[in-house]
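for ur thesis appendix - LTXXQ motif family protein. copy paste whatever u need, i formatted it the way the template wanted (i think)
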Amino acid sequence: MKKIFFLFFFTFSLSNASAQVDRRIGTGQYGNGSQTKKVDLVETSVENLKEKLNLDGFQEAIVRNLIKDNQAKSKEIIEAVGYSDIEKRNLLTEIGEKFNLELKKILTPEQIEKYEKLISKKKK
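the 3d part is after this line
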């Protein structure tokens, strides 16, 4: 009787361990996919500006890099624990202003005019 109980207990404990391993392996499939969303956001922004401002290939590459850098800096500020909400908002505003200045450096006067119209529409 003791041998049967021991075998039953031993078999039960093995099946439990394998079920735990299966659950751990399966958790990777439920990722939130934030990386693809980031890329989509950058590409969507670049395509939008390319279309509305008639960017050439050189300008498009610079805009893509500016947006990626802006996004990375913004993420650092948002995730930082040492800043209050007001400080974060001020830092994000400052980053946005720097982005606008850098962007305007590579645009033609006509493109700058179109860009300022886009910005003013978003602020309203």
